[in-house]
Design brief:
single chain, 316 residues, mainly beta, four-stranded antiparallel beta sheet
């Protein structure tokens, strides 16, 4: 793959195959290679290395387009397997049931033991599991709404240092978290939409209220894209300005599932109302929103799992 190119993992309209696609020149985007059937939740480790899960509960790492794979971890409990890599690819964190674990050069070790998850239906637009490393690679966060009842080292929402696994912040009652910006700042909200920001220098700072769903940061940390639910029950795509602490809804309703594919391009799905359903139905169309041009177009991509690079300097 050409060094420095903008890449995505996803599928192209009309073909369910999961591929790595080079979108450096959007008008001439091309598939670089494809994943074998059965690869689940794929993501980039680097520009040339990917990871994915299997039906056997394994987390696999592979060099794109090459033969041979490496099993990084095997989780044992249904509902586990959420995983993330540090920005330099040297560490991976994942969930195995109630165990939050880290794999790095020193081996596979336990970060925290959480209370068992209660057996209950998931609450749409409120429940979430976020597991991710800070953009500077110094911290890893787990914010989730299923393993409840703990505090301190077993709290449902935690930030830990990558170098030694030590706990630096914990809380509870939060959801829909994401990292954004360098120096690293973690954003999250409560069930009412009251948003807070944590960073290692200032601690916790109250921010504005936005009841965002599945927030996703831009690679340069300037924006967070998210879904916001309207009175009709349909979603729309919003943008939160990290520098301005302000929000703007940029699409009509019937849009959901935002994911940045570059600093200024946001991918998302269409959705339609569904009578008697617990959530809107897919509309079988996807879109790209250009922040710089304030324009929405129909996307040739049908799905996006991840994009590369994960982080960039502003303006690149």
């Amino acid at each position: 793959m050409p060094a420095g190119d903008n890449l995505v993992i996803g599928a192209v309209s009309g073909d369910p195959t999961t591929v790595i696609r080079d979108i450096q020149d959007p008008a001439n985007a091309r598939n670089v290679c494809s994943f074998a059937p059965g690869a689940v939740n794929p993501q980039f480790v680097s520009a040339t290395t990917v990871a994915y899960e299997t039906a056997d509960n394994q987390i696999i790492k592979a060099v794109a387009g090459a033969s041979g794979t490496t099993v990084l971890a095997t989780y044992t409990t249904y509902g586990s397997g959420q995983y993330a890599f540090s920005p330099d690819g040297s560490a991976m964190s994942y969930l195995d049931g109630s165990a939050w674990r880290m794999v790095d050069a020193s081996g596979n070790h336990l970060l925290a033991s959480l209370p068992a998850a209660a057996s209950r239906p998931s609450v749409p637009d409120q429940d979430s599991i976020f597991l991710g490393f800070s953009p500077d690679g110094q911290y890893v966060a787990l914010f989730q709404t299923f393993h409840l009842g703990g505090s301190g080292s077993s709290a449902p929402d935690q930030v830990r240092r990558v170098k030694d696994g030590s706990l630096v912040y914990s809380t509870s009652g939060m959801t829909m978290a994401t990292w954004a910006s360098v120096p690293s700042r973690l954003y999250f909200r409560d069930s009412s939409g009251a948003m807070k920001r944590w960073d290692p220098s200032a601690g916790v700072t109250p921010m504005l209220s936005v009841k965002w769903i599945n927030p996703q940061p831009s690679p340069d940390g300037r924006w967070i894209a998210y879904t916001v639910r309207g009175l009709s029950g349909l979603g729309a795509i919003g943008l939160y300005s990290v520098q301005g602490n302000s929000v703007t809804t940029v699409t009509t309703t019937g849009r959901t599932g935002a994911h940045f594919v570059s600093n200024d391009l946001v991918f998302y799905f269409g959705e339609t109302a569904c009578t008697g359903c617990s959530a809107p139905a897919p509309a079988n169309v996807a879109y790209i929103y250009d922040i710089a041009g304030a324009q929405e177009v129909i996307s040739r991509l049908a799905s996006v799992y991840d994009s590369w690079p994960h982080t960039t300097p502003a303006g690149i």
